[in-house]
Amino acid sequence: MLAQEVFEIRLREVRDLVYDTLCDYDRLLPGVFPMTEKVLFRGDAPCGVHFCLHGPRNVKYTSIWETDKNSVLYYNSIGERFRRTELMEDLTVAPSQCDAQLV
Fold first, then answer.
1. Domains contained in the chain, number
2. In a domain, 101, yes or no
3. pLDDT over 50 (residue 8)
4. Which of 76, 73, 96, 98 is nearest to 86 (CA)?
5. pLDDT on residue 9
6. What is the pLDDT of residue 83?
7. Are 69 and 10 a contacting pair, CB within 8 Å?
8. What domain range includes position 72?
9. Rounded to an integer, what distance in angstroms lies between the CA atom of residue 103 and that of residue 95?
10. Phi (first) and psi of residue 23, to 5 degrees
C-alpha cells in the first residue's frame, strides 16, 4: 500500500524530505549515512532527480523526484516502491542545482 502525502516545499526541503523519509523507512540514524543525487534528463531537458541513500552493509535506498508530475517516489533496498508523495508547489530543476552532492 502506498502512502500519499501532500507537501508544500522547496528544493532544499525536497532533499531533506527524501533523506528523512528514507532514513525513517529502515530506522537509520539521520546524518550518519551519505546521500547522493543526480539530475535525470529526457532528451536535453532535466525531468527529475535520482536520490540514493547509501546505508549500512552497502544497502541502497533510492528515490525519484518526477518534476513533470511533481511527485516523489520512494524505493526500498530491493526496488519495491513503498511511498509516493505529491508536492504542491511546482518546482523546476536546473542541472547545476544537483551535482552528486553528499548530504
1. 1
2. no
3. no
4. 73
5. 52
6. 96
7. no
8. 3-93
9. 17
10. -65, -45
Task: Choose between 8 and 49: higher pLDDT.
Answer: 49
C-alpha cell at 55: 546505508
In a domain, 74, yes or no: yes
Asked whether residue 100 is assigned to any structural domain, the reply reads no
Q: What percent of the chain has pLDDT over 90?
A: 60
**Residue 35 placed within a domain:** yes
The 3-class SS string of the chain reads: CCEEEEECCCHHHHHHHHHHHHHHHCCCCCCCCCEEEEEEEECCEEEEEEEEEECHHHCEEEEEEECCCCEEEEECCCCCEEEEEEECCCCCCCHHHCECCCC
Q: Region 79-86: what's the mean pLDDT?
A: 94
Phi and psi dihedrals of 70, rounded to 5? 55, 50
Residue with cell string 552497502: 58
Q: Which of 101, 96, 86 is nearest to 9 (CA)?
A: 86
